[in-house]
Design goal:
The protein contains 15 helices and no strands. By secondary structure, it is mainly alpha-helical.
C-alpha cells in the first residue's frame, strides 16, 4: 500500500514526512481490525475464543481509525493539503466494482467463521483458495510462473515467522518450567496492589516492547507473565487482548525502532527522524483511543456478548 499511496501523495504536494507517518500509523491498525493474525495468536496462547476476539476488535479498530482522521484533518487544513476534485458517482461505482472481489475477501472469511462454516485456522485455507481464484480467474494477474514466485515468497515469510514462534515458544516453555514467569508476575504484584497502577505499568512495558520487537515475540514472551496478573485482578481476558493489541499497534510506528515507520520512510526516501516528528500527532491520537478502550470495556465486549460469542 505504501509503495502506491506515498508516491501518489507526494505528487499531490503532501509532505513526505506527513505521508510516511500517516501510512505507518494507518497500517498499524491492521492488527486490531478483524480478521487479525494478532488476535488469532493471542487466542491460541491464552485459550480465548478467536471469533470473540475478532468481534471485540471491531469498535476499537473503528475508533483507532477515526482517531487518526482527526489530526489528519487539522494538519491537512493547516498546510492546504487536499482540495482535489471529488469523484462522480459513475467513477465511484466503477472503482467499487473493480475492488469488489477484494472487498468481499474479509466478508467471506468473517462470515464463514461466525456462521460456523469453518474455524479461524481453516479460514486461512479458504483465503488462499479465494485469492488463487481471484488471481487466476477474475483479474488474471496470476499464472504458473508468478504463482511459483508467490509460493517461494510465502515459504520464506512463513519460515521466518515459524522460526520466531519456535524460539519464543521455547523461551516461554523454559520460563514456565523453571517458574520464572510466576516469579516475575509476583514481583510486579509486590510493587503495588493498585490495579490501575499495575495496568499503567503493563501498558508502558508493552509499548516499549512494541517499539523494539515484533508482535509475535511479544505475545509469546510476555503473555505467560501477564496472564497470571490478569487473573489476579479479575480482568477480562478478551478486553485485555484488545488493549494489548492496540498498544502494540501504537508501538509499531513509535520511535526509536518503529517497524512501520522504518518501512514507510524508506519508501518516501527520507530519514526516520523527520517522520518521527510528524508521527507524534498520530501517536497521541491512537493513545487517546487506547485510553478510551481501557476506561470503557464495553467498547470491546459489547459485540461479542451481543452475538453470543462470549459470556464473560
Amino acid at each position: 500500500m505504501g509503495a502506491v499511496i506515498i508516491p501518489a501523495m507526494v505528487r499531490k504536494n503532501y509532505r513526505k514526512d506527513f505521508a510516511a507517518a500517516l501510512i505507518a500509523a494507518g497500517g498499524s491498525t491492521a492488527i486490531v481490525v478483524p480478521p487479525s493474525i494478532a488476535f488469532i495468536l493471542y487466542g491460541v496462547i491464552t485459550a480465548t475464543s478467536v471469533p470473540a476476539l475478532f468481534a471485540a476488535g471491531v469498535f476499537p479498530g473503528i475508533l483507532a481509525g477515526l482517531s487518526l482522521i482527526v489530526p489528519t484533518y487539522f494538519i491537512s487544513r493547516r498546510h492546504g493539503y487536499g482540495g482535489e476534485r471529488r469523484g462522480t458517482w459513475k467513477e465511484i461505482v466503477q472503482a467499487v466494482r473493480e475492488a469488489l472481489w477484494g472487498i468481499l475477501a474479509p466478508l467471506v472469511i468473517l462470515g464463514g467463521i461466525y456462521g460456523g462454516i469453518f474455524t479461524a485456522t481453516e479460514a486461512a485455507i479458504v483465503a488462499v483458495f479465494y485469492g488463487l481464484f481471484v488471481g487466476f480467474v477474475v483479474y488474471r494477474s496470476l499464472n504458473l510462473k508468478t504463482l511459483y514466485q508467490v509460493l517461494v515468497d510465502s515459504a520464506v515469510s512463513s519460515a521466518v515467522v515459524l522460526l520466531i514462534v519456535a524460539l519464543a515458544g521455547l523461551y516461554s516453555w523454559a520460563g514456565a518450567t523453571l517458574g520464572v514467569m510466576e516469579k516475575i508476575a509476583a514481583l510486579i504484584l509486590n510493587l503495588t496492589q493498585n490495579q490501575w497502577a499495575v495496568l499503567v505499568l503493563i501498558n508502558l512495558l508493552i509499548l516499549f516492547a512494541g517499539m523494539l520487537l515484533d508482535a509475535i515475540s511479544i505475545y509469546y514472551v510476555f503473555l505467560p507473565i501477564l496472564m497470571p496478573i490478569v487473573a489476579h485482578f479479575h480482568w477480562d481476558p478478551l478486553w485485555f487482548g484488545v488493549v494489548m493489541t492496540l498498544n502494540l499497534a501504537i508501538g509499531q510506528f513509535t520511535p526509536p525502532v518503529a517497524v512501520n515507520l522504518y518501512v514507510t520512510t524508506n519508501l518516501a526516501g527520507i530519514p526516520l527522524e523527520r517522520a518521527a516528528v510528524a508521527s507524534l500527532p498520530f501517536i497521541l491520537a491512537m493513545t487517546a483511543s487506547l485510553v478510551l478502550v481501557i476506561l470503557f470495556p464495553a467498547l470491546s465486549l459489547y459485540l461479542p456478548r451481543l452475538w453470543g460469542l462470549y459470556g464473560g
